């Protein structure tokens, strides 16, 4: 190799964080074992790709612009083919869907359309966190996209353990107390109240109200990730934090990857919090997010937004309606996975001692607890000898934790693959667990 060679130590320190290599590690393992059944990716199922008619969806959105927004064909062309506004194009449709599906009543000006939910997370963190005194509380274990973004921006995180139905509120109180005592503050807390990635846990209604009350008392914002709420059955649906009393403290984050089309890479942030300007005028937090976005991605692809807009219009402005069949498939897959675990690892199945799992009622993920470390050497053996992949839960914990846990994602697989994959996993666990 010739020319200038950069020293690894001269690059940003965030690259040394284990969380930054988590996704790369899993992709590398999957690439080396392509024939293994993989419970690793929490990706949408491909069964619905045949239903995506991109020209049809764009044509539907064009018709909306011409008929409802009174734009000429030439104006529509410029809107879709040129650079677009940083705030987005389909904000009105997103705001309408939030009102229809969740009872979240916000003006379209409070919506910023982003390049996936990951950009929404990055924009919110960059805008809110201004000094080393600002701390980000996270429900632990936590989505690596959030902890990775915080690490990239140099934001310190503090962990609050989650449980099946709740957060450890005593621990949250202690985190807030310690922050005050040290001269710091909890600026915001990230939560995914419905079937979180990676644990599948869910906040009950009482816990949602309690969390909003703590945010009010301790004066911090809540960053609500709503990616998996659509997988709840109608009977089990709970209102998002943003729709409850106290929701003015919630920045609501969403994505159309799971509900409409992952390849479109369209997400959004709802940030209706008032911001006082130096001039004395009042704007919205969304205005500030749009300013930051203009320096990150400039704008979200107008063509991608047109596809999502067309899908929403096709389903009467409702994400829930657009995602109904998907929700049913993911509910089916989750039932298949839990039943397979019961058959292969439950009582009467020569189950290894100490193996247990949670039973989420929605989402993509189930968490298994083992008596042996669920680490990378075990994953390597699982792939090589037993032909099954999963994700070590330690990748998702702030600090230490999760060493004896693994995550199974069921969204990407068919029932036959789930059944066979659990059969292979059970063989592995009988071989390694005492």
Could you explain how this protein is built, in words?
This protein has 434 residues and is α/β, with parallel strands linked by helices. The chain folds into 2 domains: 8-48 and 324-432, Alpha-Beta Complex (Aspartate Aminotransferase, domain 1); 54-322, Aspartate Aminotransferase, domain 2, CATH 3.40.640. It contains 14 helices and 15 strands. It has helices at residues 22-32, 54-67, 73-81, 91-102, 116-128, 144-152, 169-181, 205-218, 285-293, 302-314, 319-322, 324-345, 376-386, 415-432; strands at residues 37-38, 111-114, 134-140, 156-161, 185-191, 221-225, 250-255, 267-270, 274-276, 282-284, 356-357, 365-369, 388-389, 391-392, 405-409. A 7-stranded mixed beta sheet has the order 2-8-7-6-5-3-4, with helices on both faces. Strands 11-12-15-14 form a 4-stranded antiparallel beta sheet, covered by helices on one side. A two-stranded parallel ribbon has the order 1-13. Helix 2 crosses helix 10, helix 5 crosses helix 9 (285-293) and helix 12 (324-345) packs parallel to helix 14 (415-432). It is globular and about 65 Å long. 45% of the residues are buried. The mean pLDDT is 94.
């Amino acid at each position: 190799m010739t020319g200038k060679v950069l020293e690894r130590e001269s690059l940003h320190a965030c690259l040394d964080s284990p969380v930054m290599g988590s996704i790369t590690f899993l992709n590398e393992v999957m690439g080396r074992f392509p024939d293994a059944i993989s419970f690793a990716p929490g990706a949408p199922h491909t069964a619905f790709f045949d239903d995506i008619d991109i020209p049809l969806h764009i044509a539907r959105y064009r018709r909306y612009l011409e008929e409802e927004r009174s734009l000429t064909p030439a104006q529509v062309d410029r809107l879709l083919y040129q650079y677009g506004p940083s705030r987005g194009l389909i904000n009105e449709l997103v705001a309408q869907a939030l009102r229809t599906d969740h009872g979240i009543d916000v003006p379209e000006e409070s919506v910023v359309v982003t390049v996936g939910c990951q950009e929404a997370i990055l924009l919110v963190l960059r805008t809110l966190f201004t000094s080393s005194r600002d701390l980000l509380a996270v429900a632990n274990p936590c989505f690596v996209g959030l902890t990775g973004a915080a690490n990239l921006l140099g934001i310190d995180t503090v962990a609050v353990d989650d449980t099946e139905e709740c957060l450890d509120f005593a621990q949250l109180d202690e985190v807030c107390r310690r922050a005050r005592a040290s001269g710091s503050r909890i600026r915001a807390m990230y939560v995914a109240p419905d079937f979180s990635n990676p644990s599948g846990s869910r906040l009950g209604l009482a816990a949602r109200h309690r969390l909003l009350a703590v945010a009010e008392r301790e004066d911090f914002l809540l960053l609500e990730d709503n990616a998996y709420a659509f997988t709840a059955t109608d009977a089990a649906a709970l209102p998002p934090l943003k729709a409850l009393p106290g929701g003015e403290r919630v920045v609501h984050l969403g994505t159309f990857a799971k509900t409409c089309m992952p390849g479109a890479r369209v997400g959004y942030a709802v940030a209706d919090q008032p911001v006082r300007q130096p001039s004395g005028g009042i704007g919205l937090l969304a205005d500030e997010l749009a300013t930051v976005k203009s320096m990150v991605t400039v704008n979200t692809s107008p063509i991608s937004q047109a596809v999502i807009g067309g899908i929403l219009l096709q389903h009467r402005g409702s994400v829930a309606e657009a995602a109904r069949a998907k929700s049913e498939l993911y509910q089916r897959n989750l039932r298949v996975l839990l039943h397979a675990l019961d058959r292969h690892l439950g009582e009467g199945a020569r189950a290894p001692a100490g193996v247990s799992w949670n039973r989420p009622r929605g989402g993509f993920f189930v968490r298994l607890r083992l008596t042996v470390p669920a680490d990378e050497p075990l994953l390597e053996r699982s792939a090589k000898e037993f032909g099954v992949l999963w994700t070590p839960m330690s990748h998702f914990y702030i600090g230490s934790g999760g060493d004896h846990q693994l995550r199974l994602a069921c969204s990407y697989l068919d029932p036959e693959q789930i059944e066979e994959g659990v059969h292979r996993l059970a063989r592995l666990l009988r071989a390694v667990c005492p």
